[in-house]
Write a structure and sequence with these properties.
The chain has 251 residues and is of the alpha+beta class. It folds into 2 domains: 6-132, 2-Layer Sandwich (Beta Polymerase, domain 2), CATH 3.30.460.10; 138-247. The protein is built from 10 helices and 4 strands; from the N terminus they run H-E-H-E-H-H-E-H-E-H-H-H-H-H. The protein has helices spanning 6-23, 36-39, 60-63, 71-84, 111-120, 138-159, 167-186, 193-202, 210-222, 227-247, and strands at residues 28-34, 50-55, 93-95, 122-126. Strands 3-2-1-4 form a 4-stranded mixed β-sheet, with helices on both faces. Helix 7 packs across helix 8 (193-202), helix 7 (167-186) runs parallel beside helix 10 and helix 9 packs across helix 10 (227-247). The longest helix has 22 residues, at 138-159. It is globular, with a radius of gyration of 19 Å. The protein starts with 5 loop residues before the first helix and ends with a helix.
């Protein structure tokens, strides 16, 4: 399968939008590309293709929700990932207009997705007044972050403690904590993983381990690190999570 360049990625997303309309044309409002493709840091052969479906309020029975898309949509996502050999993942999900406005349902943890949609979203099909959607406030992000930490403590960590996290899981979790700091303490929202560490280091941030953050950057570039380096990330993540959650008031 040929490497997917930007033009091909947009063509795939337009074809996908047409197939989504066959699921329920009357309730599909718009399809927005998000992530690296519309934001200017798409990497052929490495980047996935992210998208959000805006569907009419009350249509969850047709489309499912952000956590669990309907069976037809999930099957279509899987078909497209396999058909075009899309790297990493292909998981567009539905959002209803009322979910884009406060008060937000913290159990769905949508504030970052709304910010991504506002900052990166580029229309692939349809029409929706995205400019009218407000950016979430600091307290909205914090509420979602607290909900996630409650889930981590009560469920996730019991099934997968830090000492069993893979290299990719360690990298993504470390980046999540750095991004939280940038959002809450510096007002910076950065979704490009490769820019997160340099921004964090340049912001006079606490809890920096240069060796660990160098490993994070190398993993983002190469996709592989040693088991010894993975252990270094696990140790750093343990300290970072405890200290960062204390700093941001998440514990």
């Amino acid at each position: 399968m040929a490497i997917i360049d930007e033009a091909t990625a947009w063509r795939i997303l337009r074809l996908y939008s047409a197939e989504c309309r066959r699921i329920e044309p009357g309730s599909l409002v718009a399809v927005y590309a998000t992530g690296s493709l519309p934001a200017g840091y798409y990497r052929p052969g490495q980047s996935d293709i992210d998208a959000v479906l805006i569907v009419r309020d009350g249509s969850e029975g047709v489309w499912g929700n952000s956590d669990t898309p309907c069976e037809k949509l999930a099957a279509l996502n899987q078909e497209y990932r396999q058909r075009y050999d899309i790297p990493r993942d292909f998981g567009p999900f539905p959002l209803q207009p009322h979910e884009l406005y406060p008060p937000y349902d913290c159990s769905k943890e949508l504030t970052l997705e709304i910010a991504r949609l506002k900052l990166q979203g580029r229309l692939a099909w349809g029409a929706f007044p995205l400019d009218d959607v407000p950016m979430p406030a600091e307290e909205d992000y914090l509420r979602d972050f607290r909900h996630f930490e409650e889930y981590w403590e009560s469920d996730f960590s019991k099934k997968t403690p830090i000492e069993r996290l893979s290299a990719t899981q360690c990298v993504n979790t470390i980046l999540m904590h750095l991004q939280r700091y940038l959002i809450i303490e510096k007002g910076i929202i950065e979704f490009d993983k490769r820019r997160t560490v340099p921004l964090y280091e340049a912001s006079q941030a606490p809890f920096i381990s240069k060796p660990a953050l160098d490993v994070v950057q190398r993993h983002l570039e190469t996709g592989t690190i040693s088991e010894e380096e993975t252990d270094l990330l696990r140790q750093y993540l343990t300290d970072l999570r405890y200290n960062m959650n204390g700093l941001l008031g998440l514990r």
